[in-house]
Amino acid sequence: MTIKEFQTNSLVETRELGKKIGTSLTAGTILALTGDLGSGKTSFVQGLARGLGVPDEYYITSPTYTLINEYPGRCPLFHVDLYRLEGPDDAEEIGLSEILCSDGVVAIEWAERLSGETLGEHIAIDFEILDDESRKICVSVHE
Ligand SMILES: Nc1ncnc2c1ncn2[C@@H]1O[C@H](COP(=O)(O)OP(=O)(O)O)[C@@H](O)[C@H]1O
Ligand SMILES: [Mg+2]
Fold it and tell me: For residues 32 and 10, what is the distance between their CA atoms, to the nearest angstrom?
């Protein structure tokens, strides 16, 4: 397992990190995003989308009520937020398993609500609030 740590000191820097990672991602990659409310997961996905070539007219917001949003890019981007997930049956209902084996990039907020088994091979990105403007972002690869 490879681990890389980043520190960002603004919302813009977190978006830039997301964009950089998005630029080099290949189709079929699953990103498991974890960390408290307000730690920067959605901001990161906003940058990720730009890196994946999602046009600027798509404004990326957390899909809190729909649970899954799909955006067109170099490959489809599925943005999932499991904050309101009731249980594993719910995950089934929203069609998560189909998405997880699709050839899109899947970015899942509150991925701690899923088992490692459900996720399969993935990149984990953990967000930690250091202070008002700073975040520690820890990237690890799980094969
Ligand atoms: N370094 C930073 N990275 C990301 N967001 C930051 C940072 N510093 C402050 N913020 C603020 O923290 C909040 C992050 O919100 P959001 O990305 O929606 O988090 P989450 O999806 O994890 O709940 C935003 O209000 C943003 O302006
Ligand atoms: Mg969010």
Answer: 22
* Residue 4 one-letter amino acid: K
Q: Which domains does the chain have, with CATH numbers?
A: 18-61+69-81+90-129 (3.40.50.300)
Query: Tokens 């996905």 identify what position?
Result: 45
CA dist 114 and 88 (Å) reads 8
| Ligand at shortest distance from the CA of 35 | 1
Q: Residue 10: CB partners within 8 Å, gap ≥ 6?
A: 133
Mean pLDDT over each residue of the chain, to the nearest integer: 92
Q: Which of 6, 36, 43, 64 to mutate to test the pocket of ligand 1 (most atoms within 8 A of CB)?
A: 43
DSSP conformational letter for 67? S
Q: By the 8 A CB rule, do 141 and 21 touch? A: no
Angle at 84 between CA 79 and CA 86, to 5 degrees: 120
Answer whether 0.90 is exceeded by the pTM: yes
